[in-house]
Amino acid sequence: MKAIVHDVYGPPDVLRPAEREQPVPGRGEVLVRVHAAGVDPGVWHLTAGMPYLIRAAGFGLRRPNNQVRGIDVAGRVAAVGPGVTRLRVGDEVYGGCAGAFAEYARAKEDQLAPKPSTLGFEEAAAVPVSACTALKALRDVGRLSAGQSVLVLGASGGVGTFAVQLAKALGARVTGVCSPGKADLVRSIGADEVLDYTSQDPTDGTRRHDLVLDIAGNRSLTALRRSLTPRGTLVIVGGEGGGRWIGGNDRQLRALLLSPFTGHRLRALAAGVRHEDLLALTGFIEAGSVNPVVDRVHPLDEVPEAVRRLRAGQVRGKTVVTVGAG
After folding, report:
1. Which of 24, 61, 160, 262 is 20 to 30 Å from 268 by CA-CA measure?
2. Cα radius of gyration rounded to whole Å, the chain
3. Mind listing the pLDDT tens digit for each residue in 133-168?
4. What pairing do the DSSP bridges indicate for beta strands 16-19 and 2-5?
5. What Å distances lie between residue 19 and 47, 107, 221, CA to CA?
6. How many angstroms separate the Cα of 313 from the Cα of each of 43, 154, 201, 307?
7. Please, what's the largest Cα pairwise distance for the chain?
8. Which pTM was predicted?
9. What are the C-alpha distances in Å from 238 to residues 9, 51, 92, 137, 246?
């Protein structure tokens, strides 16, 4: 099969097309014929091997253990392994997998769900990692209730565009923060108020929110806490900066250590895709309250360019890679 691989860590240019053996599904796994794959910040981090904490976490100290990148996937089930009960060959699915930038990818059954009937494969591939992360941040970690106020820092990105829509669907009042060139997008997906971070400081303390989502940011905990109500919740989703060793994870660690000593709930969140969350998202999508924002669709050979654009902050919503005909 054709795949995009890398056998060394480095910039997006290390990603290259190659022929690889078609994977074989194991127990509880299915083989997906990939029609489209999403591009998220995790792709860059795993390609670059940065921060170094990623390598120590089992992805390979000197070189990547898994040479095919990509987690977001949408396609059809091509084969099923032992113990698979919910899916059959030919089913249209979406979810998370190992190595989506390829014609075939192996995925755990509990990380897949039937593709929403209202979405094509390219739109569906934009959903899994980003939307599952946003849903968990709001519903599970943030404990969002109808009528509360939510501040979304990074509202125009993959997680952010889903967070704005999901927060509105859950009955919250939403303030989105983004660059001036993306304000129209954030407003169009339902934000009640949009702040331009180049001219307004959303954490200056003049506005207080029940829940603050900081998505891939680098603001200090002190600044973020200024935006919270006395019993408000901060959820840190990823982060940038912080050095080569642990990257933006230092703020997450400090937030968890500080939380017991303050009236605020300070929480950290890592991305993950679960069958149950995908089913919940399908409900929102098919009801019309959540729609993926797809910035651009690239062919498989343009994965390096797609990753470069994402890293440069040029993407509104999600970038998608098309792999096979739907």
Report:
1. 61
2. 19
3. 999 999 999 999 999 999 999 999 999 999 999 999
4. antiparallel
5. 18, 20, 46
6. 14, 11, 20, 10
7. 57
8. 0.93
9. 20, 12, 30, 11, 11
